Amino acid sequence: MPILANITERLDAELKEALKSRDDLRVSVIRMVKASLKNKSIEKMGTLTDDDTLSVLSSLAKQRRESIEQFEKAGRTDLSEKEKKELEIIQSYLPKQLSPQEIDEIILSAIKECNATSLNDMGKVMKIVTPKTKGVADGKIVSQRVKELLSK
User: Fold this and answer.
1) CA separation for the pair 8, 16 (Å, rounded)
2) Eight-class DSSP state of 151
3) Of 3.40.30.10, 1.10.10.410, 3.30.530.20, 2.60.120.1680, which CATH number belongs to 100-150?
4) What is the chain's pLDDT, residue by residue, as a tens digit (152 residues)?
5) What residue segments make up the domains of the chain, in order of their start?
6) What is the distance between the alpha carbons of residues 66 and 69, in angstroms, rounded to a whole number?
7) Rounded CA separation 83/86 (Å)
8) Exposed site from 78, 80, 123, 129, fewest CB < 10 Å?
């Protein structure tokens, strides 16, 4: 069964539960996710593929991570905590995230595959790594690890 059908059904069911239990944060996050998926569907003028769904969820998670970083720099822990809770809810709809070891394995195999030797080859490595880590790893972390492993 496609991921999208599962996520849509799950969002509907969890929205009802959150409304019943008066979990305002969860209600607002689920509504935001549903609205983002609907907007993407309208933008695409058709039904979403699993990749589209993952892409929407990943970008929502990325926005939260960036907000957390900005709020912490500004010393706004109250806002940072809210974003962390939202991120946690969004991540519950994403596939299980890769561990640092799994990310390194993917990167190292990509480095071997394209015979990368220096930071100049980062583009080649990322071209191989990105499709394998999309939706299951933060692109910023992956990019950082590729730089670190290529500069050794």
Assistant:
1) 13
2) T
3) 1.10.10.410
4) 345 557 888 899 999 999 999 999 999 999 999 999 999 999 999 888 877 888 899 899 989 999 999 999 999 999 999 999 999 999 888 888 888 888 888 888 888 888 888 888 888 888 888 888 877 888 888 888 888 888 87
5) 3-91, 100-150
6) 5
7) 5
8) 78
Question: What's the CA gap between 67 and 82, in Å, rounded?
Answer: 10
User: 47-75 pLDDT, tens per residue?
Assistant: 888 778 888 998 999 899 999 999 999 99
- What's the predicted TM-score (pTM) here? 0.75
The CATH architecture assigned to 3-91 reads Orthogonal Bundle (1.10)
